[in-house]
Amino acid sequence: MARTSRDWEEGLARDVRDPEFARRFILAAVEDGIPLQQAIGKVIRLAGVKEFAAKVRLDQSQVSRAIHPRHSPNQDILNRLLRPFRLKLSLVFLDKQKRRHVA
User: Fold this and answer.
1) pTM of this prediction?
2) What proportions of the chain, in percent to the nearest 5, are helix, strand and coil?
């Protein structure tokens, strides 16, 4: 069973090198309820923290700290981590008609 998991991880590591695939992976993960920090962290670890840090022009330690679950990166850092995937954090209005009230 461990072999299948390792093969899957290796395949995923190859796939996330494609920015479009990585972007869709992050969006799907967040849509499925996975915290954004965890989704970004998965992609960055698979791609290689050192290589990713060089790409976003941050120290490796800053990237590692930002994706560590015990830390809360600020919006600027998250946006720097999201930029290679052509993503950014933003707020949107909720449509009043789509909002459900629980009674």
Assistant:
1) 0.77
2) 65, 0, 35
Q: Which domain holds residue 11?
A: 2-98
- Structurally, the chain folds into a number of domains equal to 1
Record the tokens describing residue 75, joined without a space: 């919006």
DSSP letter, residue 32: T
Note whether residue 103 is domain-resident.
Answer: no
Task: Encode pLDDT of 41-88 as tens digits.
Answer: 999 999 899 999 999 999 999 999 999 999 999 999 999 999 999 999
Q: Is 70 inside any structural domain? A: yes
In a domain, 63, yes or no: yes
* DSSP line for 47-86: H-HHHHHHHHT--HHHHHHHHSTT----HHHHHHHHGGGT
Q: Cα–Cα distance between 74 and 66 in angstroms, integer?
A: 9
